[in-house]
């Protein structure tokens, strides 16, 4: 198993990304297992919220370049997180790259440790943050996204909070999480579901409007010669041929 679903604790189901060999990258297998675990949590009347976290020093390294998920499957997973009638809260204590940032944006609340680091690295391997833009563009500062999408620069947790990618950050991430989880435990299931519906309406509009075009763009880019060069260079730990 690449995903461990822990038993719920006081109404919170914890799903832990646990694929250390590829830094919790979004492989076809991980995407499928996470989708199944979310479906199970959604059907469980005893689950009030889902906590999405990780093992190791990386929350998610983006798409697994050796076993990438189908773009349609990734779109479906992101939409599933957005549409789940229960809050999904991300707990991040490590690095987040590329597609992993799409997971964060799809979550309702994201809490990070001050040591966490973030980067949109797609342009550096010849592709674009296409599918993950579905939850990112409606929720994140557009000027900041322009900078980080186009440059692939790394940024820290404080900047992630400033631009709206992360809700809150602190040295002790669990201390920051405590009032969040206490709050959802005190809320009624109906109140949570209907309030989440209000909050996600604009995000779901983006999925309805743009998902097909962005899925096609992702598939086209990943099959292009520049992407093949970029992914090969990444796996060989060298600069791609276009670096000047």
TrEMBL record:
Q: Which domain of life is it from?
A: Bacteria
Q: Membrane spanning segments where?
A: none
CDD domains assigned to the protein according to its UniProt record, in alphabetical order: crotonase-like
A Pfam family cross-referenced in the UniProt record is ECH_1
The text of the family note is: Belongs to the enoyl-CoA hydratase/isomerase family.
| Family annotation (NCBIfam families) | PRK07827.1
Q: What is this protein called?
A: Enoyl-CoA hydratase family protein
The organism encoding this protein is: Streptomyces viridiviolaceus
């Amino acid at each position: 198993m690449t995903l461990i679903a822990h038993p719920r604790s006081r109404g919170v189901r914890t799903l832990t990304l646990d694929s250390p060999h590829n830094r919790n990258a979004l492989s076809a297998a991980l995407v499928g297992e996470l989708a199944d675990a979310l479906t199970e949590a959604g059907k469980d009347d005893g689950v009030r919220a889902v906590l999405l976290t990780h093992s190791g020093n990386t929350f998610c390294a983006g798409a697994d370049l050796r076993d990438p998920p189908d773009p349609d499957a990734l779109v479906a997973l992101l939409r599933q997180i957005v549409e789940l009638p229960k809050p999904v809260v991300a707990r991040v204590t490590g690095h987040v790259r590329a597609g992993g940032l799409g997971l964060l944006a799809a979550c309702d609340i994201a809490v990070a440790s001050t040591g966490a680091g973030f980067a949109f690295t797609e342009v550096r391997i010849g592709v674009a943050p296409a599918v993950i833009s579905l939850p990112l563009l409606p929720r994140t500062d557009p000027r900041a996204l322009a900078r980080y999408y186009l440059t692939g620069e790394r940024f820290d947790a404080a900047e992630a909070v400033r631009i709206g990618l992360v809700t809150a950050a602190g040295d002790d991430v669990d201390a920051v999480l405590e009032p969040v989880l206490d709050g959802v435990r005190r809320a009624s299931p109906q109140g949570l579901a209907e309030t989440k519906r209000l909050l996600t309406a604009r995000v779901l509009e983006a999925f309805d409007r743009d998902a097909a075009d962005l899925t096609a763009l992702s598939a086209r880019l990943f099959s292009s010669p520049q992407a093949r060069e970029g992914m090969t260079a990444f796996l060989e730990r060298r600069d791609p041929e276009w670096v000047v």
